[in-house]
Amino acid sequence: MSDPIQEVRKFILGRNPKLGQVSEDLDLIDSRAINSLAFVEFIFLLEELAGEPIDPEDVDLDDFRTLGAIEARFFERKAA
């Protein structure tokens, strides 16, 4: 499998081609790169890439705010 964070970038850019790039610290929520309509699909993508379900009771909105936060919350623990 390719790098999960690159797959996340592809997802975001596929829905927001005008962004051109997604930096590690871009606020995905405030910039509307991930909006409420795409959020459920985004969660499904993260679950697939992480290989486990995401419990909505166990996450905070800040877990989805930047690529860095997403990587730390959902992917780095897999590498450890």
Describe the 3D structure.
By secondary structure, the protein is mainly alpha-helical. The protein has a single domain (4-79), classed as Orthogonal Bundle (Non-ribosomal Peptide Synthetase Peptidyl Carrier Protein, Chain A). It contains three helices and no strands. Helix 1 runs antiparallel to helix 3. The model has no long low-confidence stretch (mean pLDDT 90).
Summarize the structure.
This protein has three helices and no strands. It has 80 residues and is mainly alpha-helical.
Name a few traits of the molecule:
single chain, 80 residues, Non-ribosomal Peptide Synthetase Peptidyl Carrier Protein, Chain A, 0% strand, globular
Question: Strands, helices and their partners?
Answer:
Layout: H1 4-15, H2 36-50, H3 67-79
Helix pairs in contact: 1-2, 1-3
Q: What structural class do you assign from the helix and strand content?
A: mainly alpha
Total DSSP E strands: 0
Number of alpha- plus pi-helical segments:
3
What distance separates the N and C termini?
17 Å
Helix content: 40-55%
Q: Taking all residues together, what is the mean pLDDT?
A: 90
Radius of gyration equals: 12 Å
Q: Which outline best applies?
A: globular
Q: Which fold does the CATH topology refer to? A: Non-ribosomal Peptide Synthetase Peptidyl Carrier Protein, Chain A
Number of domains: 1
